[in-house]
Amino acid sequence: MTNPIIRTIRFGASLVACLAVGLTGLYFTSLPTAPDWFAALEKPVFMPPTWVFYWIWVILYLLMGISLYLVWSKGLGHRHVQGALSIFGVQMVLNVLWWFFFFGLQDPYLAFIEVIILGAALFMTIILVDGVSRPAAFLLAPSLLWVSFVALLSSTISYLNP
């Protein structure tokens, strides 16, 4: 059993790391041209209000942080931890890239292609994380559902705004 102080630090670091990914993505929504560009886009009827996105992402990043902690807490010597942490990191980078492609480059089609790759990476993350901690894998499942919805939104927005 690890020292409680170390567990607390790992837990906090896991949450901060995942929330930092979210803040990095959020940065791209605040670029000078992003709000006007996004407002001018034709959006599908099933597009949720903007505030829904923010709250869902906050919840998902918190769940990812808890998942990351559960994997990390098994120790780097655990048979599957390093692989799970590696793919976890890859999918977090891909997460930021969606924000960059969609809001930074203002390219919904490229964002759609990227979110398909993100979904595949997230699926692989869940599989590898499941080999370390089943609860950690379950905590990532809502992210996969949301990323699937984001893929639908990205493709539809791309179609509506050629």
Instruction: Report strand %.
Output: under 5%
Structural class: mainly alpha
Low-confidence stretches: none
CATH superfamily: TspO/MBR protein
Summarize the helix and strand pattern as letters.
HHHHHH
Largest sheet: none
Distance between the termini: 56 Å
If you average the pLDDT, what whole number results?
Answer: 96
CATH architecture: Up-down Bundle
CATH top level is Mainly Alpha
Shape: elongated
Relative helix content: over 70%
Can you count the helices?
Answer: 6
When the domains are counted, the total is 1
Give your account of this protein's structure.
The protein has 162 residues and is an all-alpha fold. The protein has one domain: Ferritin (Up-down Bundle), CATH 1.20.1260. Helices cover 80% and strands 0% of the residues. The protein contains 6 helices and no strands. It has helices at 4-29, 34-40, 50-72, 81-104, 108-130, 134-160. The longest helix has 27 residues, at 134-160. The chain starts with a helix and ends with a helix. The mean pLDDT is 96.
Would you kindly provide a brief summary of this structure?
This protein is mostly helical and 162 residues long. The protein has helices at residues 4-29, 34-40, 50-72, 81-104, 108-130, 134-160.
